[in-house]
Amino acid sequence: MQQPVTTWTQLEAYINEVTAQQIAKCKRISDPVNQGVCFAVENERGEGYEGEMFTYTVRYNSEDGFSCTCGAGAAKFARIAHPSGVCKHCRWTVAAALAERAAIQPEQAAPTAEPEAAAPKAQPLKPTPLAPQPDQEEARKQSEIDHERRMRAPLNGNQGFRLER
Fold it and tell me: What angle (nearest 5°) sits at the alpha carbon of residue 36, between those of residues 34 and 41?
């Protein structure tokens, strides 16, 4: 018996279950298989093989629904107990895509206010010299004295010079 296809819209109902840490594990990448976009989802435990981060690939198309390279996805989500019918990686991906879309939309909206009515631009900070602290000033003077003393001393310390054969 074939599982019903879970749509993108159906998964949007479960995005409030996804945390910011889980969204951060999802990265949008170009899909070499379907010439589109898919998501790489980091392993939840942060474990990898020989220091490499292990990732699962989540894809979606309207005909086949979601696919994931995790164990549950390889089994066509046959034993998923979650009411969404797909693995957590698919739910995380939908939440990440919606968060990304929400972040992009305000940037694309054109400003309606006049430039003069906008908030004033921040002025660059001017560096202000710090007054030397008494302990720092004393340490600096002592350092200069030590430097002068070393510069006046012979290179071989206090030993006389003699040429050995």
Answer: 95
